[in-house]
Amino acid sequence: KETFVGHQVLRITAKNEAEIVLLKELSQLEHLELDFWREPIDESLPVDVRVPFHSLQPVRSFLAYNEIHYDIMIEDLQDLLDTEQQEMMSSRA
Amino acid sequence: LQPRSTDDFNYASYHTLSEINSFIDALVQENPNLVSKIVIGQSYEGRPLNVLKFSTGANRPGIWIDTGIHSREWVTQASGTWFAKKIVTDYGRDAALTAILDSFDIFLEIVTNPDGFQFTHTSNRMWRKTRKPISGSLCVGVDPNRNWDAGFGGAGSSSSPCSETYRGPYAHSEPEVKAIVDFVKSHGNLKAFVSIHSYSQMLLYPYGYTKTPCKDQAELHEVAQRAVAALTSLYGTKYEYGSIINVIYQASGGTIDWTYNQGVKYSFTFELRDTGRYGFLLPANQIIPTAQETWLSLMVIMDHTKNNSY
Lengths: 93, 310
What we know:
The complex is a heterodimer of chains A (93) and B (310). Chain A has 3 helices and 4 strands; from the N terminus they run βαββαβα. By secondary structure, chain A is α+β, with helices and mostly antiparallel strands. A 4-stranded antiparallel beta sheet of chain A has the order 2-3-1-4. Chain A is elongated and about 50 Å long. Chain B is built from 9 helices and 8 strands. Chain B has an 8-stranded mixed beta sheet, sandwiched between helices. In chain B, a hairpin with a 5-residue loop joins strand 1 and strand 2. Chain B is globular, with a radius of gyration of 18 Å. Chain B starts with 16 loop residues before the first helix and ends with a helix. The interface between A and B is medium-sized, with 26 and 24 residues.
C-alpha cells in the first residue's frame, strides 16, 4: 500500500499572471512528482499541490525565490489518511 | 459487519466498494416498487457498473446523476449514497420530488469508476484515473473526464499516459465511459445529466473544450444561479457558476460537453465542498452537510427539467 509520509499539500495563491506562468513551469518538472489537486489557471483561483517529501525543499525554495505566497494546507498527508482509516474502522465497529 | 438495512447504514462515514454495493442491493430489496438495479457494463477489471433506477412508471424520460468518476473524490460517492436514501425517503412525502418521480425516472451511478475506487481503498488513496493499462507505457489509467468524444484530444487534456489528465488512446476507450455512452444513446430520452466531482465549489455547464457559448447558455446560467442560491441557503457555502471554460479552465473530452452535444440540454457538473483545509480528504463529518446542500441544488435542476420539457 502506497504511503504518503511527509507529503504536504500546499495552497498557493498567485497574485498575477506571471506567477501563474511560473507555477505552470513548476508543474512541468516531472522529477518533482508533484500532484496538482487544483492546477494553476488564473490568479483568482488557488493552486493546491501535493508535494512528496523529497521535493519539499526544492519546491519551497522555488516559491520563496519567486516570492510566491503559499500556506501549508496539509502538514502531513499520511497523518490525515491514518485518521481517515481509523474513523472508518470505528464506524464499522 | 454489514448493516441490516439502509436505515442502519452510516451515512456520515466513508465506505468501501463492497459496502456501497451491499447498500445498493439493500435499497433495492427494501423498495422493490420504486428502485431497481441495472448493470450498464463492466469496468476494465470486470466489476459491474451498477446504476440505481428510481422509477414509478414505464416509458418515462430520464434524469442521470453520477458520482465518483474520479476515484479519490470520496465525498462524491458518499454523497451519492446519501442521495439514494434521500430519494426513497422523500418520495411520497416531499411534493416536489414526488412530482419529479411521477413523470421522470432518475438514474444514479454512485461508483462510476469502481476499479479506481477500489484501488484508493487498497493501494493508493490518491488514485484518480481508471485502471486500464496503457500499451507501451508503464503508467496506468485514463482520466475518464477527458475521454469523451467532445473536442477529444484538444487543449486541456494530456497525451502523456503518466499525466493525471491523460485522455486515453481514443475517445470512449475506457469501458466505464463507453458504458455510459451506450446507455445514454440507447435510452434516447435523458433530459438532464449531472456529473458530480469534488472539490472547489463550482456548478458548471458546457462547454469546456471551446469558448463558443452553448446555444442554451442563458437558460443554463439562470438555472445554475438558482441552484447555487438554493445550495448556499443551507450552510452559506459559496459556489461559483458558469461555463467550464470560463469559470475553471479549458478541458477537452469532458463528460457534460458530450452529453450536451447528444441533446441532453440540462447538462451540469458539480465540484463539491472545499473547506480549504483538506482537499480530497474531506473529513467524514462533512459528508452529510455536503450532500444536504448539494441535494437542494439538484432539486432545482430536476424541478426545472420537469417544468421545461423539450
